[in-house]
Amino acid sequence: MDFNLSEEHEAVQQAARDFAQNDLLPGVIERDNAQKFDPTLLQRLGDLGFLGMMVSPEYGGGGMDTVSYAIAIEEISKIDASASVIMSVNNSLVCWGLEKYGNEDQKQRYLTRLAAGEIIGAFCLSEPEAGSDATSQHTIAEDKGDYYLLNGTKNWITNGNTASVYLVMAQTYPEKGHRGINCLIVEKGWEGFSVGKKEDKMGIRASDTHSLMFSDVKVPKENRIGEDGLGFKFAMGTLNGGRIGIAAQALGIAAGAYELALAYAQERKSFGKPIFEHQAVQFKLADMATRIEAARLLVYKAARLKDEGKEYVKAAAMAKLYASDVAMWATTEAVQVHGGYGYVKEYHVERLMRDAKITQIYEGTSEIQKLVIARELLK
Question: How does DSSP assign 98-132, residue by residue?
């Protein structure tokens, strides 16, 4: 086992860290307050190659491994989790799914532009009654011969209004259950497709999350991904890899809060000495550093297994389960270390605490991760 990063990984880490510190940190609080992501930063993400990191160079991507991707997500999440979730969805759920399951025509039409950051994608699985129970799809894709007629509603869609391309899971054959679900590529602006209100969220507020409505939207048959009925398998396969991205995001949020707490503890004085010299604070920081390092090893292990073409479902679920719990705990502890200052926006940790919570919920709740792990243990 080699726990050292390669030169390539270190270069990715430095590039992501520089972008986070120089581009994302200025204005991050203002973007959170305004609930809006700066489109120039989105363009920078694309220009730097962060929106198509794992896509083959054949389709305009960086051709990087999953470990590189996890490293970049961590560094960016230390500063701005809204930026990293945009990046995670486009990389893990949209680009990866298209490259894995899409045909050559779909890759040329959509993947090349998504990988280059020319357009942004969205992954549309959740519905008002289909969250953890992803099989309960009420969005209907009626087979009309050479096209599907799409009707229904999707909820909690990241990049909901920013995206130009949407991967939509819909039920075509209700009698077949999850085997009757298809994944359709829908373009923004098509007749009958509308974007609902922006959700007013607790965290990752600069990321736009919307409901989507489909009313008799005609989707050409050539926009179905894979064979008829592949949709559920597509969604689950894509989410398995997506968990690594969210685990890396949770890791970054935790690490960012820890770094702020460590720096503050060395500057802030009480009873005539820096608070870091008080054992109560030392123990908090020691626990934070230890749990964060454990989370990092789980994330890297899952990413490495995926890169080696080995079974990684259990490792990814473990990484997301543990890293998201560490993120919630570590950010709360960071606020405590800051005392009253931790409760105000200026010191950033209150935002990181708000951002951390969603990592225990989206792309599979912590409870779902435990079910996945338990199933894998029985194999």
Answer: HHHH--HHHIIIIIHHHHHTSS-EEEE--BTTBSS
- CB contact set of 93 (below 8 Å; sequence gap of 6+): 121, 123, 167, 238, 239, 242
Q: Which of 133, 159, 192, 132 is nearest to 361 (CA)?
A: 132
Largest Cα separation within the chain, whole Å, is 78
Q: One-letter amino acid identity for 218?
A: K
Which residues belong to the active site?
363
Distance, in Å, from the CA atom of 326 to the CA atom of 298, rounded to the nearest integer, reads 12
Up-side HSE of residue 286: CA atoms within 13 Å toward CB?
8
**What pLDDT score was predicted for residue 5?**
95
d(CA 206, CA 241): 24
The mean per-residue pLDDT over the stretch 76-95 comes to: 97
Residue type, position 301, single letter: K
pTM: 0.96
Residue located via tokens 């829908």: 186
The DSSP call for residue 229 is: T
Query: In this predicted structure, what is the pLDDT of residue 130?
Result: 82
Q: What is the DSSP letter of 205?
A: T
Report residue 101 as tokens.
């399951």
